[in-house]
Amino acid sequence: MSNTAITNLVSNVGVVSSDVAGVGTARYSPGACEYGEDKGIFGYGNADSNTAVTNLVSNVGVVSSDVAGVGTARRDLAACGYGEDKGIFGFGYAASNTAITNLVSNVGVVSSNVAGVGTARYGMGATQYDIDKGIFAYGNNGPSLSMSNLVSNAGVVSSDVAGVGTIRYYPGACSFN
């Protein structure tokens, strides 16, 4: 199977559209999150080698062409929103497991690496919670893990919190209310 850049829009009532032709570098295992209250961003991933490119998504679902990569090229990372209008990419696999993060501003600008906090790992899930905070959870760093790292409303990642639930990696995550 080859890498792809195909997207599918989801309506406000949960209807998934047919395939939309890909824009940007075809890759697998990127992270993605919202930012700016009504936009999104895809970032990093593997396109035959790890990459740090990002692609912004407009408030009508249009994916932009590649934006030059910032920070460490990696794959198998997670991302979530925080601070009501910002995002954060975190953890993943570069040449080894990593715990670094990259903040996304409310206009989609990705920051340089922020030193890692917590256990370096790949394959976690991430989501926002309580309107303005986020969480990274589970993952793998040799064995599968059950732990989490909270993200404050200022984008600060906490140290490891003992896990609850079954150890696992590559979980899906989303918020609800």
The largest β sheet comes out as: 4 strands, antiparallel
Low-pLDDT windows of residues = none
Q: Please tell me the overall pLDDT.
A: 96
- How many E-type strands? 10
Reading side by side through the largest sheet, how are the strands ordered? 7-8-9-10
Please state the overall shape, judged from the principal axes of the Cα atoms. globular
Q: Count the helices. How many? A: 0
Secondary structure: helix percent: under 10%
Helix/strand order, N-terminal first: EEEEEEEEEE
Amount of beta strand: 25-35%
Q: What distance lies between the first and last C-alpha atoms, to the nearest angstrom?
A: 37 Å
Tell me the Rg in angstroms: 15 Å
- Please identify the structural class as seen in this structure: mainly beta
Describe the fold and architecture.
By secondary structure, the protein is an all-beta fold. The protein contains no helices and ten strands. The chain has strands at 31-35, 39-43, 54-57, 78-82, 86-90, 101-104, 125-129, 133-137, 147-151, 161-162. The strands form three sheets. Strands 7-8-9-10 form a four-stranded antiparallel sheet, with no helix packed on it. A three-stranded antiparallel sheet has the order 1-2-3, with no helix packed on it. The protein is globular and about 40 Å long. The termini are far apart.
